[in-house]
């Protein structure tokens, strides 16, 4: 496998520390079921370069986990016990670095063996040394690898492969491959503060390359990822980090002056803020079931200069929080499998289970039904997910349209505009963005209008 030329080369003294952080991140996800996005605190004490190195290894191992395990197993005399997951992960981290990063092989082996010697599992040091040396020797001799299972070939759990095969028989392979790519860092310019073109100039004045995305008027894709604090105007609220596909939500909902809008699953507030950026004169209620996540809506909107009304509540339990005034527009960015954003969150492959989908489907239906009754006649509701599964997307909307006589689909089967379109396959109902191109993750949108019955 060719090494990725964009990855950093071997960091110096602190590399051992960053590998330890990477190992702890992997254990937190794979053993304790924590999400990667909750683990930033683990790398906080590292220098930015070392934190990036730790992140690259942990994200990479989660991305290629199924494949790396399949590669490792033939080199083990006997399978490792569950309690030795850390030893296995040290070897997987090494296999990842050898194949996907510009770290010299000898340095990878040396770091893995040293980490075992320093641990309570010194018994494993010789084994790790022998396994890695064997792997490197044989890898050099072998040609292109043939994997025995789909899980290993595509590096996804079988249940995700099966669902995608069933839903997208012509493009499941491309989706799986795209999920294993590193996504770009994409910004959404806060056009209430600065125009996209002026911000592009500000970036270029700082020596930072970025590209526009056709028909996504606020989006800029950076040439390479950066710490947000190195970019001009972060504290002043000039931009947010948001995938281009996610930027379609506010564009489709089209907020207008004096609209009363409900964002019922709002946290961390990316789409909330974008609605304000398109039209600051709105009355927006941002609701989320999680208090800590809603706090992030507050922080994000404060930095950008917007003030939604914030409510911590279950969107289904409308009796508990609704003040009785109908909404002109509602955004339902419902909880979902997140199978469309796996390239950004490779931990999803490991944290989600096949039987989550039915539970999510039920929650999505209840949120949709209860919130529909809060919409004015003539009002519009946008149903959104970051899923690639039809069970959460067009099948939900087909069920809803069948059930509700006053619901009408707007722009049925329409394609998304512009550059996103290249990577977009129309769903039979609504818009399905595919993650198969570089510009955007996988999202689903269906815009519904309420008519007089
Ligand atoms: C896909 S995320 C929303 C992302 C957000 N719209 C954005 O663009 O930043 C889904 C959110 O729904 C929230 N959620 C899950 N179940 C909920 C419920 N029953 N009522 C309200 N919010 C819920 C989760 O806490 C999560 O923040």
What does it look like?
The protein has 453 residues and is an alpha/beta fold. The chain contains 18 helices and 13 strands. It has helices at residues 15-30, 48-63, 65-72, 85-100, 105-118, 124-141, 150-154, 158-167, 172-179, 196-205, 248-253, 270-278, 291-304, 318-321, 348-351, 356-372, 394-403, 418-422; strands at residues 186-189, 210-213, 216-222, 239-241, 260-263, 283-288, 309-312, 327-333, 375-385, 407-410, 424-426, 431-433, 443-450. The strands form two sheets. Strands 5, 6, 7, 8, 9, 10, 11, 12 and 13 form a nine-stranded mixed sheet that branches. Strands 2-3-1-4 form a four-stranded antiparallel sheet. The longest helix is centred in the first third of the chain and has 18 residues, at 124-141.
Helix content: 40-55%
The bound ligands are: S-adenosylmethionine
Radius of gyration: 23 Å
**Total of helices:** 18
Strand content: 15-25%
Overview features:
alpha/beta; 13 strands; binds S-adenosylmethionine; globular; 18 helices; 453 residues; nine-stranded mixed sheet; disordered N terminus
Write the layout of secondary structure elements.
Elements lengths: L14 H16 L17 H16 L1 H8 L12 H16 L4 H14 L5 H18 L8 H5 L3 H10 L4 H8 L6 E4 L6 H10 L4 E4 L2 E7 L16 E3 L6 H6 L6 E4 L6 H9 L4 E6 L2 H14 L4 E4 L5 H4 L5 E7 L14 H4 L4 H17 L2 E11 L8 H10 L3 E4 L7 H5 L1 E3 L4 E3 L9 E8 L3
Parallel strand pairs: 5-6, 5-8, 6-7, 8-9
Antiparallel strand pairs: 1-3, 1-4, 2-3, 9-13, 10-13, 11-12, 12-13
Helix pairs in contact: 1-2, 1-4, 2-4, 3-4, 4-5, 4-6, 5-6, 8-9
Bound molecules: S-adenosylmethionine.
The site of S-adenosylmethionine (SAM) has 18 residues, from α12 and β6.
């Amino acid at each position: 496998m060719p090494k990725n030329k964009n990855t950093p080369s071997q960091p110096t003294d602190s590399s051992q520390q960053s590998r330890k952080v990477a190992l702890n991140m992997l254990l937190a996800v794979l053993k304790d079921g924590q999400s990667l996005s909750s683990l930033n605190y683990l790398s906080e004490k590292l220098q930015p370069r070392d934190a990036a190195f730790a992140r690259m290894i942990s994200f990479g191992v989660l991305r290629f986990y199924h494949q790396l395990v399949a590669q490792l197993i033939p080199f083990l005399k006997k399978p490792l016990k569950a309690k030795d997951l850390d030893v296995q992960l040290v070897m997987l981290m090494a296999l990842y670095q050898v194949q996907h990063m510009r770290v010299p092989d000898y340095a990878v082996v040396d770091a893995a063996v040293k980490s075992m010697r320093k641990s309570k599992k010194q018994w494993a040091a010789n084994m790790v040394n022998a396994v890695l040396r064997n792997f490197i020797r044989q890898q050099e001799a072998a040609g292109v690898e043939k994997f025995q299972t789909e899980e290993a070939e595509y590096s996804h759990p079988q249940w995700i492969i099966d669902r995608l095969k069933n839903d997208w028989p012509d493009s499941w392979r491309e989706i799986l491959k795209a999920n294993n790519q590193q996504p770009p860092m994409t910004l959404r310019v806060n056009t209430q503060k600065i125009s996209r073109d002026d911000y592009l100039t500000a970036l270029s004045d700082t020596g930072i390359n970025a590209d526009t995305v056709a028909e996504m008027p606020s989006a800029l894709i950076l040439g390479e990822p950066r710490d947000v604090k190195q970019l001009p105007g972060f504290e002043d609220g000039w931009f947010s980090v948001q995938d281009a596909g996610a930027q379609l939500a506010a564009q489709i909902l089209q907020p207008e002056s004096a609209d009363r809008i409900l964002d019922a699953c709002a946290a961390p507030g990316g789409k909330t803020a974008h609605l304000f950026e398109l039209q600051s004169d709105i009355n927006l209620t941002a609701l989320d079931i999680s208090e800590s996540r809603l706090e992030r809506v507050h922080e994000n909107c404060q930095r950008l200069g917007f003030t939604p009304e914030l409510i911590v509540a279950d969107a289904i339990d409308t009796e508990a929080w609704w003040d009785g005034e109908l909404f002109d527009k509602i955004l339902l960015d419902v909880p979902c499998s997140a199978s469309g954003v796996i390239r950004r969150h490779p931990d999803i492959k490991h944290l989600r289970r096949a039987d989550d989908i039915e539970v999510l489907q039920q929650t999505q239906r209840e949120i949709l039904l209860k919130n529909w009754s809060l919409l004015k006649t003539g009002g519009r509701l946008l149903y959104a997910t970051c899923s690639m599964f039809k069970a959460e997307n067009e099948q939900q909307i087909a069920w809803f349209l069948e059930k509700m006589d006053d619901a009408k689909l707007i722009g049925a089967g329409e394609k998304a505009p512009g550059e996103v379109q290249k990577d977009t396959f129309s769903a039979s109902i609504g818009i399905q963005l595919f993650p198969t191109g570089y510009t955007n993750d996988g999202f689903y949108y269906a815009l519904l209008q309420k008519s007089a019955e």
